[in-house]
Amino acid sequence: SQQGEEDPQALSIQEGENATMNCSYKTSINNLQWYRQNSGRGLVHLILIRSNEREKHSGRLRVTLDTSKKSSSLLITASRAADTASYFCATDARSSYKLIFGSGTRLLVRP
Amino acid sequence: DGGITQSPKYLFRKEGQNVTLSCEQNLNHDAMYWYRQDPGQGLRLIYYSQIVNDFQKGDIAEGYSVSREKKESFPLTVTSAQKNPTAFYLCASSTRTGGNTGELFFGEGSRLTVL
After folding, report:
1. Does A101 contact B104 at a Cβ distance shorter than 8 Å?
2. How sure is the predictor about A82, in pLDDT bands with cuts at 50, 70 and 90?
3. In chain B, pLDDT over 90 holds for what percent of residues?
4. What confidence tens digit (pLDDT) does each residue in B12-56 have?
5. What residues of A are in contact with residue B47 (Cβ under 8 Å)?
6. Angstroms from B23 CA to nearest CA on chain A
7. How many other β-carbons are positioned within 10 Å of the β-carbon of residue B18?
8. Best mutation site among A38, A101, A103, A108 for testing chain B: the one with the most B CBs within 10 Å?
9. Of B38, B9, B39, nearest in space to B22 by CA
10. Which residue in chain A has the smallest CA separation from B42?
11. What is the pLDDT of residue A12?
12. Which of B34, B48, B49, B56 shows the shortest CA–CA distance to B112?
């Protein structure tokens, strides 16, 4: 079962533009995490936001969490060609002891 | 360097054969996970283990088996009962603090192809 679903499925932008990806989930969570995957590689952790937090920043990344709407967004500012990758949200549902991943957003940043 | 090591990176299997994928971590993490990824798809949880000598089925455990005899190791066997085993397999580990799952550290994956 997929707990998180990302939107859009694919996104193509010009270098320097901002990229926004959204994630919706179904059940109460302890935290929500965002990961990045380059083609054919393992996933790399980007940022974790706890259920009692509303916004978090890390470099060019900004994550928001709205627990009332069960949704999160990832904003990448001033995108670069090297940001081209797939981005996944993952939720740590309460009492689940596991992370469940969404289907991902494929981001293409054109030089 | 600390991390997760998966082997082999590429594996070819004939129908009817069992294969075992290796996953080793030196991060001293208690929790370990196996995920399956199909082309253009997200990750689906196969098995996970919170502690040595204990593991639980994930969402798609049928046709797979695991063991957790050592903290560092969590091998996955893809059995002949798995009907569509061709996929990219990812192993991960994490800490748990106060009941919350922390950051997952992933290996580089093993790509299994059934001939």
Report:
1. no
2. very high
3. 77
4. 999 889 999 999 999 999 999 999 999 888 899 999 999 999 999
5. none
6. 13
7. 12
8. A101
9. B9
10. A103
11. 97
12. B34
